[in-house]
Amino acid sequence: MFRNILKKGRRLAGLGSLVAALTVAAPVMSQDKEPVVFGGSIPLSGVFAFAGIHIHAGLTDYTNWINSQGGINGHPVEYVMEDTAYEVDRSVAAFKKISGSSSPATYYGDSTGFMKAIASELNSQGNTLMSGASFATALTDNEQYPYQFIPGPNYSQMFGIILEYIATQGEGGDMPTVAFVYSDTEFGKDPIENGKARAGELGIEVVEEIVTKPGSVDVSAEVLKLRRVRPDFVVFHGYVLSPINEFMVQMRQMGLDTQFMGTFWSSDKLIIDKMGADADGYMGVMPYNYYDSEESGPMLDALRAQAEKSDPEAGYRPTGYMQGWFNAMVWTEVVKRTLARCGERTDRRQHGGISCLD
Amino acid sequence: MRIGDAKQSYEADEAIWTSQTQKLWLGLFLLILVVFPFAVDSYLLYLGCLVGIAVISTTGLNILTGFTGLISLGQAGFMGVGAYTVAWLSINTGLPFPVTLVLAGLMAAAVGILVGLPSLRVKGLYLAIATLAFMMYFIIVPLAVLMVLAARNVFRTRIGRAFIAIRDRDISAEILGINLLRYKLMSFALSSFYAGVAGGLFAYFYRVVTPESFPLSMSIFYLAAVIVGGMGNLLGGILGAAFMTLVPEALKLLTAALTPFYPNAPVFMSPMLEIIFGALIVGFLIFEPHGLAEIWHRIRRFFRLWPFRN
Q: For B144-160, how does the pLDDT look when each residue is reduced to its tens digit (9 = 90+)?
């Protein structure tokens, strides 16, 4: 599994260096060129604020960095965002406001629920490309969501990676057992059906399924359920931090030696840093490099330099930062290709950013 | 200037609109509602639709909480029932929009009587109908006006007066010959009907329904709208719904104003706005426990005697 993840990390660094090389070649940004707008519905408050502030920092830093490199083909980049508190109706309001005033070429969606709700609007507008916090399996359907992409493997694929690893961990011919713990959100529920099906194919028994609110604190009743079935593995999905920490601490206190695993948003190093020994052995699926990984490349170096410059005190930057930055890198590439294909257009504001790209 | 409105008959006292001035202002307000969608961008249009949906649901809850005195935290649940009814009907039966909406209301009313909540585990349904926000405005807002009017009419009847009697003192109401169980359930059903219609509109408006769309916090949102607006006052429900929907959006302008000076403003202002919003609600309740409607009435009283002093 880790080789797999590392490979993806290298690919990211590779794409990064490509983007870096292209932008270094054109460092002169003429002021009269129309700005390219990156819009965003960002959860700066609410249950996922924990990730939201880092996503925001990532997008902000990337925007400053790309502008310092001359923008995109000389077009300055503007990042326009609104807080959503991780609520779909506020997220839609933010989208309407931003798309009404700035005609964004690309847009960061903060939740699976929002990205589903806004799809018909995106499709009828046809000039904004969206990606964001969601890796939902549903969004990979090109028929229904032609203007959205996910920046990495989808949640079902992440479950697949985790389950394939678990399948190799059996001892004495016995398949390990697994429990799924996920949040009561569109985000949390997305891969569960596929995950169960995959577990069935691999012969892994799913002994318990637990659904909680994201960010919930009291999970003692759920922990008791887990103690009864004693799963070899617990997979967390649909959380950023709480209640993962609660589950792990309480289960360790009960003397369970369960191996904990998580999908992308549940795999931040902060979980391990905050929990210490109780988190020992935690494993997750990570399509990007960690901020402090040993990997290097022109883009990773640029990212670290920019992060250092914008906030020297911050130190380690969580996965949300890397994710925000990576989204913006892909957008940059899309805008470049659109410009290359459609040429410089003076009527970009009327027609939006990507309408010329099929 | 208008210094009094003496009434000479019971009909006049029961009339919905008691004075010419009131009719004039109302006419002006309705005119603004009609012109509004032509004059604004899609963001404000969207907020207008949200307010319309919120007004319907708040009015429903006001019937239950404000007029009958029963507190319910199930309003979002009933909206969910309405939304799922509409979604299911429009996918599986192809019934026209007005029919599904009424059925959504009736379904929610039935569930309201049973006081059940939709299962949290159900999967999302998608509406195949492509309606534009612009069209939706002309469905949502007239319906909101109509349903507020209907509620207003309810309180001119025996049923409405029975609700109020139950709220003020249920034992006295029973002695007056009001069947408590029957009228309480009726209030619940009526309230849920409103929630169901609001939920149905919500489903058509967003074209997607997920259980996540109707969390407990949404029920609290409507309860807060009723209390902030003014319990037992239909105008209060309207003001409360508008307040709760629009103020968080308006507060964001504060962030926008600060951002040029402090680039990091969104990060520290976003949690602050929640606190300011909460403080505003608490502040209103401390200084005017009868809600926004009472503030409105005071302003009106002031102008009624203007330029003389009260």
A: 999 999 999 998 899 99
Tell me the pLDDT band of A132, cut-offs 50, 70 and 90.
very high
CA nearest neighbour of A44 among B100, B280, B255: B255
Closest residue, chain A, to B208 (C-alpha): A117
Residue A112 DSSP SS3: helix
CB contact under 8 A, A96 and B42: yes
Average pLDDT score over chain B: 82
**Global confidence as pTM:** 0.79
Query: How many domains does the structure of chain A reveal?
Result: 2
Interface contact A85, partner B, CB < 8 A: yes
With respect to residue A214, please indicate whether it lies within any of the assigned structural domains: yes
Instruction: Give the C-alpha separation, B169 to B180, whole Å.
Output: 11
- For A109, the domain range is 2-152+291-351
Map residue B149 onto helix, strand or coil. Answer: helix
Structure tokens at A244: 């993962």
| Domain final position from A229, A261, A284 | A284
Same domain, A295 and A147: yes
Question: Would you say residue A184 has pLDDT above 90?
Answer: no
Q: Containing domain of residue B210, as a range?
A: 18-305
Q: How far is CA A302 from CA A13, A19, A162, A296, in A?
A: 11, 11, 31, 10
CA distance B42 to chain A (A): 6
